[in-house]
Amino acid sequence: MQPGRLSASPRLTVIFILLALIGAAAFISGILGSDPLRAWQAYLVNFLFWTGLSSGAVLFAAVLNLTDARWGRPLKRVAEAFGAYLPVGFLLFWVLYFGRVEILPWIREPVPGKEIWLNVPSLFARNGVGLLVLSILSLAMIYYSVKSDREWIAGRERGLADEGAENVSCKLCWKRQRTLSPILVIVYSLVLTLLGFDFVMSLDRNWYSTLLGGYFFVGSFYIGVAALYLLALLLGGRSELKNHLTPRHFHDLGKLVLAFCLFTGYLFYAQFLTIWYGNLPAETRYVILRVKLTPWEPLAWVVLFMIFLLPFFILLSRRVKLKKPGMILLSLMIITGMWLERFILVAPSLWKRGNVSLGVLEVLVTAGYLGIVGLCVAAFLKRVPLLPVSDPLFRKSIEMKEERLRP
Amino acid sequence: MPHDEGLVGIFSYVDDLLKALERLKQAGYRIENVYTPLHLPEVEDILGKKPSVVRLITLLGGICGGLSTVGLAVYAHLSFSLITSGKPVLPWVPWVIVCFEGTILGAVLSSMVAWVVKGGMPRLRSVPGYDPAFSQDRFGILVACTGSEQEQVRTLLTEAGAGEVRHAAW
Hints:
With about 400 residues, chain A is mostly helical. Chain A has one domain (about 10-395). Chain A has 17 helices and no strands. With about 170 residues, chain B is of the alpha+beta class. Chain B folds into 2 domains: about 5-50 and about 125-170, Alpha-Beta Plaits; about 55-120, no CATH class. Chain B is about 50% helix and about 15% strand. In chain B, α1 (about 15-25) runs parallel beside α2 and α1 (about 15-25) runs antiparallel to α5 (about 145-160). Chain B is elongated, with a radius of gyration of 24 Å. The interface of A and B includes residues 269, 279, 401, 404 and 405 of A.
């Protein structure tokens, strides 16, 4: 079996470049215009969303390694592709430094007693180091995965003469992936918790919630799995993947999306219920502003429907999970809903005027980020085999077809 | 013509079971029963059977259970004035848990009752062709066939991957 690479049309690359340029132009004109807060707010929401999406998708590959899962092996490379954005995301993080006065209200009005944690050098240092470590670990895991496949393919092209040496190298790469995966899972949860605390919770100077970090990284994994589902559905028809991505894979991925839809909803409710019961002004103000007061209340209901209620009832059906057009629409709805969820976590803390700051500028900045992520993913998939051919569990899944199930 | 005997093919793998079912269906044999230790929607698809009514009963039981517990909570709050300071008289936020628990309870109980009734339990007579392995790690297909057809059915089942083919009568 000689695995193929993605043969993306040059037109797609041009579209992504255009999107990135349009987004950059909109952002720059926004920060130089009369209302820089709105541009910085859109940038922050997109940074949190796309970093969560990419790291969540890479986490999927790490979890596959960690659990010795065979079912999702053909999806491993597609999941790893999102990791190509992480170093770019690390660079984009530093742009936030220039908008710190706009997006971090505690710089203008320091909170007494919280100066040790809420100060600019410490905040950017800890988040920068965290994102750097997350990017390095993700890229290292992906590097060993790709390196192993390339050596395996090169070995096949040379013939089987040095199969022994090739196996030693592949085994070493596999061992390193297995070592890096659990570390990546822990670092992911810590770094995403940090992002949630520093760039969501601290925006409301007096609000605190110990569960927000967990909610934030589980939500990011939900976005990552939904994005992976969408990309797998879009790539599934290609000849390189067609024989390996069966309806059973999409059914299982649909079940995983349902599971994380429930888990994200559960964590939201666990937090909401605790705040509701305690009824402490320092805690309730954050929730009341978003779910009870104009103008944010209708948006909060839209988010609830898009990321929890509709996916929950739709994904209960097995037949629906096997329908490609329906699932593409559902994944898009979840991804859009989660973008709005990140928006409603951030924006009401910053935007104090009587309207919802959602418009052309937000759409253009989001399009810019989409262009950057799309370029990274497409560039990665063009250069690597689309299937993890040397992965021992992928090989096992081929040798023992999944249909040969035993109870 | 009704049959009172047939053959049971015993399979280890799902794909062999599905292959055998498809071949038997194409050949026009009457499949009396399929035994599996786990739910396989593909079997229903091949046999053209509608999903079991147990699903619907479970759903109805769940809805009734959820509504009943919320109804009980409303009744208790209004009858005994269970008003907590700073909270609404009928607080829906904590009732999500009550409703969830009631839904699960209703669904489990109705599912169990439907399963027992629909399965005709307790079954005092032995089921034709049944083997305890069908509740552990094997699949079985009971095909109704007379003496003259039995050789063809046996060949078909064996070629499809049956590890063993037994005679059964009822």
